Amino acid sequence: MYKNDKVIRRYSEPFKLKILDELSKGKHTKSELCKLYSIAPTTINEWIKKYNRKDLMNTRVKVETKDEISRIKALQKEIQQLKKLLLKKDLDTMVLDSYLEVAAEDLGYKSVAELKKKLSIKP
């Protein structure tokens, strides 16, 4: 057998509907059906979408209190402020480095590191 040889499985419409019926009646869980019939969970999810069986989809319900929501909003606001401060700090550092390059050149230093050493600026 070659490396790229794959087994392609095709399932009939009645078989797909049978699987969805078993899932909806609660005879088996999705993971049990996957093991029983050697079907990937993503395949069953595709069938659920194809046949518009949203009742069988896993749903995520997120329960939050007002305190949690306000805390999340405050944290998001703080993150935005910190991002702005970090950007400003990076820009300030870039400007300082540019000034030092020009100053080193104008004052006749061989490198910016030499100027920083003379001025006792930490690298």
Q: Which sequence of SSEs, written as H and E, runs from N to C?
A: HHHHH
Overall outline = elongated
Average pLDDT level: 88
Number of DSSP strand runs: 0
Strand composition percent: under 5%
Helix content: 55-70%
Q: How many domains would you count in the coordinates?
A: 2
Number of helices: 5
Report the end-to-end length measured between terminal Cα atoms: 60 Å
| Radius of gyration of CA atoms, rounded to a whole number | 31 Å
Uncertain parts: none
Structural class from helices and strands?
mainly alpha
- Biggest pleated sheet: none
Give me some keywords for this one.
123 residues, mainly alpha, 2 domains, 5 helices, 0% strand, elongated
